Amino acid sequence: MKITNVEAIYVRLPEVKAQTDSGQDALIVKIHTDAGITGIGEVDSAPLAVKHVIEGPYSHTICTGLKHVLIGEDPFRIEYLWQKMYEQNIYVGRRGIAIHAMAGIDLALWDIKGKALGLPVWSLLGGGFHTRMRCYASSLFGRTPKETGEIARRLRDQGFTAAKFGWSPMGESEKQDIELVAEARRGLGDDADLMIDAGLVWDARTAIKRARAFEDYNIFWLEEPLHPDDYDGYRKLSEATNVHVAAGEHESNRLSFIELMDRGRIDIVQVDLTRCGLTEAMKIASLAHDRRLKLANHGFTTYINVMAALHWLNSVPNALIAEFVVQESTTLREMITRQKLRAKDGYLEMPGEPGLGIELDDEQVNRFRVA
């Protein structure tokens, strides 16, 4: 089997709102083979920039569009292809956007391999730790504390036993920050796990102060309150509070995660499969396991991301919980794949179909495709 083409497809809602919701557009990767098997992946990044990293022309031996590295290759040689992409695009790669592009390609390669062998990806990865995975309902904060509490009550009534709220208006004032958390806890009730994603809004001293105040509301973790480069600030926060500190969505490879784990001393390692890929995520998971750290996925985009995360979480011994977006707004999530995932009593069933187990709705993809 040989790779014959690599597509990077940009889909976007007609109206994109000014909010931290990355489900309003998406970059889909499709890899075609001469055996008629097509694999799909996704990248959560700057979509058009990623498209050009993949489809751009050959420049020279260590700077080339990734498509040209892959055509004619055997899609089963996934580790080899990861290293080939990394080395032949090293001017652009090593961190960030080029690794994001490689991640989407990597997911599509695993999808091809699973389809060709008739096995789910988690089986190819040697997994099978779970038949279902506990998930938390992931939402942006409401516009006010009261609205946040109302969302929390709806999530509790839907059967979720854990929920996370994040980003704006967190960080506008100490009083409002505490009220947002208080109302979220009141809406969820005392028995559910509550996670808070601060959204990079504080310095270390302020984060320590907020974490101590949030302890009164028994939050399970405080996520990314600091700038992602502030590894020393994360260490100070982790050493000063009893709240678990979670981070990782801004990192793209294991070298950055080592900094976050060893220098930042975080408790929960969050990996976005659409920014790291399965091949790299398995190595990150192993490094975290060596440090006795728990894992959770990050993902606020489509069900391609969710399915990839479930395969990964089912393949590592230190998986804690899965993120499952329930943001109450119009997104591409419900539109561009044939499968629509649903949580039951706060759990997601592990996929059992070959490959990633999810297929594009081509009609909807074409409807929203802009490039």
Please outline the helices and strands.
Blueprint: E1 3-12, E2 25-33, E3 38-43, H1 47-55, E4 58-60, E5 63-64, H2 66-70, H3 78-88, H4 97-117, H5 121-124, E6 132-140, H6 145-157, E7 162-166, H7 174-188, E8 193-197, H8 204-214, E9 219-223, H9 231-240, E10 244-247, H10 254-263, E11 268-271, H11 273-290, E12 294-297, H12 303-313, E13 319-325, E14 347-349, H13 362-368
Parallel strand pairs: 6-7, 6-13, 7-8, 8-9, 9-10, 10-11, 11-12, 12-13
Antiparallel strand pairs: 1-2, 2-3, 4-5, 6-14
Helix pairs in contact: 1-4, 3-4, 4-11, 6-7, 8-9, 10-11, 11-12
Output mean pLDDT. 96
- Can you tell me the CATH superfamily of the largest domain? Enolase-like C-terminal domain
- Tally of strands: 14
What is the CATH domain class of the largest domain? Answer: Alpha Beta
**Total number of helices:** 13
The description of the largest β-sheet is:
8 strands, parallel, barrel
Radius of gyration: 20 Å
End-to-end span in angstroms?
28 Å
CATH architecture of the largest domain: Alpha-Beta Barrel
Strand content: 15-25%
What is the strand arrangement across the widest sheet? 6-7-8-9-10-11-12-13
Number of domains: 2
- Residue stretches low in confidence (pLDDT < 50, at least 5 long) are none
- Tell me the series of helices and strands, N- to C-terminal: EEEHEEHHHHEHEHEHEHEHEHEHEEH
> CATH topology of the largest domain, anyone?
TIM Barrel
Shape: globular
Helix content: 25-40%
Structural class: alpha/beta
